[in-house]
Amino acid sequence: MSLYGALQSGVSGLNANSKAMSIISDNISNVNTIGYKENKALFSTLVTDNTPNKYTAGGVRASAQALITKEGLVQTSSSVTDIAVSGQGMFVVSDLANGGGMRFTRAGSFTPDQNGNLKNGAGFYLQGVPADIDGNFPTNVAGPNVLRTINLASLTGNPTATSSIGIDLNLQASQAVSPGAYVAGDMATRAATGAGGKQPDFERSFEVFDSQGTSRTITFGFVKTAANTWGVEAYSSPAADTTGTDGLIASGTITFDTDGNLAGNTLPASLAVPWAASLGITTPQNIALDLGTVGARDGLGQVDTPSSLIASVVNGNGIGNLTGVEIDNQGVVTAKFSNGTTRNIYKIPLATFPNANGLSASTGNVYAETAGSGPVNIDFTGRGTSGSIVASSLEASTVDLGEQFTNMITTQRAYSASSKIITTADEMLSELINIKR
């Protein structure tokens, strides 16, 4: 029985070292796999019936242990959607774009697919918590049901209606008084019809945005009516954009003191722009107007240099197209648009486990929850051991080639030694059989 036990022990050694060689082969072949976690071969003895007067060889067996908690080197990437984790957290992914079996991975090489969904090279979709209409996120991730596949398609920058105009300009002090009487609306009429009315001595147009995000033009005209006194009008271009006569929005009088500082301003502090109903806008748009402080030189002024616009500040923007995204170390995905606006769209949570090394590995460098791993905890970054997200970076494989080649040599020698057990036991059995001869 002991010789047959020796044969079985040798066979178990061959099997165990074959499995160890398979584990080493997997490690070496995945040395360049992003986020790959090294597997280690664990050997354990097989003991049968061992009593003081009897010994039966049991042999050995090998099992694979995934070193999932071992962190790889974080390397810089040129892609803004490549992300890595500094800590023990894992990305939550799904094998279906519309949600499916939840899996976990450290492979953060995500790129948009043809539908705009962020997907890694193995075909798994990155999950995130969508922002509300104001770009805010819940304090905690209530559970996997709040997760959605991060999608970058069909994103547009929301339009913002213009709500303020600030103007800093100079009106030439030596400008001659315009001949003839000035009546409010004269400059708007001249601009709308090209005849009649009164030609402004100085005119500047500003781009504004209505409530639908459409670009419109409001022009300010100035005409000198007396010493240190100017008539001013705001009118739309074209005139048909508003319901005012010849596009007139507002008119008033500007006066200056002898030092050229603003002395008076009867133009309304807020323009109520009466957009035409044909534009689909039914209520006036209020635009605060800042022409400077009376007694100061922080807006309109009058000195003896050619009339010119010094500076202007007009807020608002139209609809913008997506130009790129950014991901910060809190996992917030921010979309950038061509109209200069940005908006938070998703926040990437991380998953942690009581025993991450107990997870079950699947094809595609992903893992599934098991009884040995304990229940998953999905939360935002910075909570517990989850760590933080490193943008434009990827986690390299944890495989050390030098160590793997060393293990390969020792495994090969152990395999050869196990085969020697079988040949030696066979020779002993042959001697036993030859006794009868």
General description of the model:
- The structure is a single chain.
- With 437 residues, the chain is α+β, with helices and mostly antiparallel strands.
- It has three domains: 2-67 and 398-434, no CATH class; 77-154 and 344-395, no CATH class; 164-314, Tick-borne Encephalitis virus Glycoprotein, domain 1, CATH 2.60.98.20.
- It has helices spanning 2-29, 186-193, 401-434; strands at 39-45, 60-66, 74-76, 83-86, 90-94, 102-105, 110-112, 118-120, 125-130, 148-149, 156-157, 164-172, 202-209, 215-226, 229-236, 248-256, 262-265, 270-273, 285-290, 301-303, 308-314, 320-327, 332-337, 342-347, 350-352, 360-362, 366-368, 377-379, 388-391, 393-395.
- Strands 5, 6, 9, 10, 11, 22, 23, 24, 25 and 28 form a ten-stranded antiparallel beta sheet that branches. Strands 12, 18, 19, 20 and 21 form a five-stranded mixed beta sheet that branches.
- β5 and β6 (102-105) form a beta hairpin.
- α1 (2-29) packs antiparallel against α3.
- The two termini are 21 Å apart.
- Percentage of β-strand residues: 35-45%
**Spatial extent as radius of gyration:** 39 Å
CATH class of the largest domain: Mainly Beta
- Give the overall shape: rod-shaped
Contiguous helical run count: 3
**Fold-level CATH name of the largest domain:** Tick-borne Encephalitis virus Glycoprotein, domain 1
Mean pLDDT score, rounded?
Answer: 90
User: For the terminal residues, how far apart are their CA atoms?
Assistant: 21 Å
Low-confidence stretches: none
The tally of domains stands at 3
Q: What is the tally of beta strands?
A: 30
